[in-house]
Design goal:
Elements: E1 3-13, H1 19-24, E2 26-36, H2 40-44, H3 53-66, H4 72-86, E3 90-99, E4 111-118
Antiparallel strand pairs: 1-2, 2-3, 3-4
Helix pairs in contact: 3-4
Length: 120
């Protein structure tokens, strides 16, 4: 099995519990890790058997631009499920989402949510 990672992808989105968060929006940062079911792509050096990282980027982009979520957890589940449907050779997807501007009174870098989805 191989692990394929895309790190620190940034998109502007309108996610949050509070109405002002969904109206004003902010930057969100994503890491996605995909674990393949086997080593077929690597053993055969076959680009058609691996994960198209440009397509992964597009799934994240569409999730944050075309859908609306209140919870980062829900967004993470959505992205993971979409990627598992798109790539039959993927066994597991872990999506990490960072939200730097949170309504917390105090110094903080960001809130982070990590969601792992597994193929059935």
């Amino acid at each position: 099995m191989a692990k394929i990672r895309i790190s620190n992808v940034m998109f502007y989105g309108f996610i949050g519990i509070y109405e002002y968060e969904r109206e004003q929006g902010q930057k969100f940062y994503f890491d996605v890790e995909l674990v393949t079911k086997d080593d077929t792509a690597a053993e055969q050096d076959n680009p058609n058997a691996t994960v198209d990282t440009a397509a992964v980027y597009d799934v994240i982009k569409r999730a944050i631009t075309d859908k609306r979520f209140m919870l980062l957890e829900a967004l993470g589940v959505y992205i993971g499920d979409k990627l598992l449907k798109r790539f039959a050779n993927v066994a597991e997807v872990t999506t990490t989402i960072r939200k730097p501007n949170v309504p917390i009174a105090g110094p903080i870098d960001y809130v982070e949510v990590e969601v792992t989805r597994r193929a059935q």
